[in-house]
Amino acid sequence: MEYFVQQLINGVTLGSIYGLIAIGYTMVYGIIGMINFAHGDIFMVGAFISLIVITALGLTVSTGLGLTFVALILVLVCAMIIASAYGWTLERLAYRPLRGSFRLAPLITAIGVSIVLQNYIQIAQGARVKPLQPIITDGYTLMTKTTEAGEFVVQISNIQILIISVTVILMAVFSLIIAKTSLGRSQRACEQDQKMASLLGINVDKTISTTFVMGAALAAVAGLMFLLYYGVIDFFIGFVAGVKAFTAAVLGGIGSLPGAMLGGLVIGLIETFWSAYFSVEYKDVAAFAMLAIVLIFLPQGLLGKPEVEKV
Amino acid sequence: MSKQPLLQIENVETFYGKIQALRGITMDVHEGEIVTLIGANGAGKSTLMMTVCGNPRAASGRIVYDGTDITNMPTHEIMRMDIAQSPEGRRIFPRMTVYENLLMGAAVTDPQYLEEDFEKVFDLFPRLKDRRDQRGGTLSGGEQQMLAIGRALMARPKLLLLDEPSLGLAPLVVKQIFEVIKELNQREGLTVFLVEQNAYHALKLADRGHVIVNGVITMSGTGKELLAREEVRAAYLEGGAH
C-alpha cells in the first residue's frame, strides 16, 4: 500500500510534465491539423534556457526561500518568453509558407526543424549532459511502515508539490482561456472552420501564431520542471519526452485539451507503475502498448470528438 | 440613383486554378437595396460572393466598397468594414453553442452593442433563443440557416451578403427567412446582396436582379421585370444551360 502511494505520487508528477507538453501538440494539431514534431525540442530549449538563467542568477539550494521563489518565477518568465519566440519563429519560417501545400510537407518539415534544433543546441551547449544541483529539496513524509527489511517512507517532495500545483494552475488557466475568452473562441473557430473564421473578421494567421506561442510557453514550463525534477538535461531530452507527450495527446484524443491532460497522466502513471512492479526496461513498451490498445477500441482517443457533424 | 453605389463590382474575373469561374462580372448594389443574383449550380454565384470577400481573390477587375478599393485586401480586413456574409452551406461552428456562434459573429464589433444585438437576433429568430446553449451541429437545417443569418447580423453590417439561404429548407421555413430579410431591409435599411437558386422567391423580394450563366451576367432588371420574362423561367426549369 505504501509502495503504491509513493508510485502514485511519482506517476502523477511525471504525468504532469507530459501533460504540459502534450497540450502544445494537441492545440497545434487542433488548429492546423499538423503534428508539430519539433514541439518536444521546444521543451528541450525551454529546459536549457532555464538552466542558463538559473546559472546566471547563481541560484543554489542555500538561497533563501523567498528569494528562490522570486528567482524561479523570473526563470519561468524568461524561459516562457524565449521559448515562445522560438515557437513563433518556427511557425513563421517553417510552417506558414507550407500552408495549403500537401499534408505531408509540414510534417516532414517539422521533423527537419526538430533535427535542426537538436543540433543547434548540441553545438551551442555541447553534447554532454548538463547537471544542475538540486535547488528545491526536502519534502513531507506522508506514511511510514516498518518491516523487517527496514523502514519504508512515503514522501512527497517539495519539487513534486511544485510541479503538480503549477501544472494544475496552468491547465486551469488555459482551459479557461480556451473556453471563455474571445481569443479562445477565435482559436476554436479556426479549428472548426478557418474560412468561416476569416469571414467573421478573424485574423487566422495571427490566431495560429498565438497558438504556437501558447504551446511553446507551456513546453518551456515543462522544461523548467523537468530540469528541477531530474537535475540533468541534454540536447536529446526533447525527443524522448516529445514522443511520450505526443503519445499522451493521441491517447487522450488529439485536438482535445482535457484529453491531453488525461493522456499525460495516464502515460505517466503507466510508466511509473510498470517500472515499479515489472521492469524498468519495458516501461516504454507498456506505454506504447496502452496507446495501441486504446486506439483499437477508441480510435478517436479517450476524450476525442467523434466526427459526427450535421450539414 | 446618382449616388455612389455601396458595392461596386467592375469587370471581375476569378479563377480556380486554370478554370475560369467569373468572366467579367459588372454589377453594383446601392445602399438600402436588395439585389439578387440568380443562377444555376456552378454558374459562379457563390464564387462572386466569395470574391467580394477576397477569397478567392479576383484575378482582374475591381471591387469597391463604400469608396474603398477592397479587391486586394485580406478577407479578415474586408469583413471588418461592415460587410457580413451568411455563406453557402451555412458554415455553423458545429462544436460551439448557438450563443458562442453568435458571439463569433460579433468578434469585431464594439462589445457595448452586444446585449442589444443578441436581443435583436433572438427577437427575429425566437427559435435560437430556445436553443441558446445547444451545439450548432445539433440544430436542424432551418435553425442553422437562422443561426448563420443571425451570426452575420451580430457583426452590425451595412451590407449583408446572403448565399442561398433557402437551400434545403422546407417551404414554410424559406418563407419565414425571406420575411425576416424583407423586414430587416425595410425597418433598418439594411442593404442585402442575395444569391439564390430559388429564383421565384428571390426576385419577388429583390429591388433588382441579375441572372448569371457560366460566369457571365446575361440578364438584368428589376425583380418584377425578370420574373415576368420567359427566358428567366426557362433558364430555371432547364438548369441554365443556355
What does this protein structure show overall?
The complex is a heterodimer of chains A (311) and B (242). The radius of gyration of chain A is 20 Å and the shape is globular. Chain A has eleven helices and four strands. Chain A has 311 residues and is mainly α. The mean pLDDT of chain A is 91. Chain A has helices at residues 2-32, 39-57, 65-95, 104-125, 158-180, 182-192, 194-199, 204-230, 237-252, 257-277, 283-297; strands at residues 130-131, 139-147, 150-157, 232-233. In chain A, the strands form two sheets. A two-stranded antiparallel ribbon of chain A has the order 1-4. A two-stranded antiparallel ribbon of chain A has the order 2-3. Chain A has a single domain (2-297), classed as ABC transporter involved in vitamin B12 uptake, BtuC (Orthogonal Bundle), CATH 1.10.3470. With 242 residues, chain B is α/β, with parallel strands linked by helices. Chain B has a domain at 1-82 and 192-242: P-loop containing nucleotide triphosphate hydrolases (Rossmann fold), CATH 3.40.50. Helices cover 36% and strands 26% of the residues of chain B. Chain B has helices at residues 45-52, 75-78, 98-105, 114-124, 126-130, 141-153, 171-188, 199-205, 223-228, 230-237; strands at 7-16, 19-29, 34-39, 60-65, 68-69, 83-86, 159-163, 191-196, 208-213, 216-222. In chain B, the strands form two sheets. Chain B has a six-stranded mixed beta sheet, with helices on both faces. In chain B, a hairpin with a 2-residue loop joins strand 9 and strand 10 (216-222). The longest helix of chain B is centred in the last third of the chain and has 18 residues, at 171-188. Chain B is globular. Chains A and B meet through helix 6 and helix 7 of A and helix 2 and helix 3 of B.
